[in-house]
Design a protein that fits this description.
This protein is mainly α and 157 residues long. It has a single domain, classed as Winged helix-like DNA-binding domain superfamily/Winged helix DNA-binding domain (Arc Repressor Mutant, subunit A). Helices cover 50% and strands 5% of the residues. It has a two-stranded antiparallel sheet with strand order 1-2. The longest helix is centred in the C-terminal third of the chain and has 22 residues. It is elongated and about 60 Å long. The N and C termini lie far apart (54 Å). The N terminus is likely disordered.
C-alpha cells in the first residue's frame, strides 16, 4: 500500500507551487489549448474560417490534438467547422460572448461535488460536501467572469 506523507504531497511530482509556495489549480493541457484556440478564433474580427493546419502551427498545438479539441468544442456549439480546401474553424453562434466556463464545461465537463458512499449520515462527509459545494460555486462564478471579447480586447491595449 502506498503511504503519502505531507512531505511527499508537497513534492513537485504531485503538486505544483506558484512563486509564493501556494498550491495552484491544475489546468489540463486540453483546456489550456482549447482556450488558446478560442482566443485565436476570437481575435479575428471578421470571424472568418481559419485552417486547422494554420492554427496548429500558430499555436504550436499538435494537429491531431487540435482536431480532438475542436471536435469537442464543435459538438458543444462553441465553434463551427467548414469542410473543404477553403474551410476551417470559426466561432459558433455565441461568438465573443463565450465564457471560460463554457469552454471548461465543454472540454472538462461540469464541476461535480463528491457524495457519500455510505447509507448513513457521516458528519465529516457532510462538512466536506458543503466545502466542495462552496468551492465549486466560487470556481464556476470565477470562470463565468471571463469572456472571449474581454480577453481579446484586454490584450489589444
Amino acid at each position: 500500500m502506498l503511504s503519502l506523507t505531507r512531505h511527499s504531497l508537497d513534492n513537485q511530482h504531485f503538486r505544483r507551487k506558484d512563486k509564493w509556495g501556494e498550491s495552484m489549480l491544475k489546468v489540463s493541457r486540453r483546456l489550456n489549448y482549447g482556450l488558446q484556440l478560442m482566443i485565436a478564433l476570437a481575435s479575428d474580427e471578421k470571424n472568418s474560417s481559419k485552417s486547422t493546419a494554420a492554427i496548429s502551427e500558430q499555436l504550436a498545438i499538435p494537429l491531431p490534438f487540435l482536431h480532438q479539441i475542436a471536435h469537442t468544442l464543435q459538438q458543444n456549439g462553441l465553434i463551427k467547422a467548414t469542410p473543404g480546401p477553403k474551410g476551417g474553424l470559426k466561432l459558433g453562434s455565441k461568438e465573443k460572448n463565450i465564457t471560460l466556463y463554457d469552454i471548461f464545461a465543454a472540454l472538462e465537463g461540469q464541476f461535480s461535488v463528491p457524495t457519500s458512499e455510505s447509507d448513513g449520515s457521516i458528519k465529516e462527509n457532510e462538512i466536506a460536501v458543503e466545502v466542495w459545494t462552496d468551492v465549486g460555486e466560487k470556481i464556476v462564478n470565477a470562470l463565468k467572469e471571463y469572456n472571449l471579447e474581454d480577453l481579446v480586447t484586454a490584450n489589444k491595449a
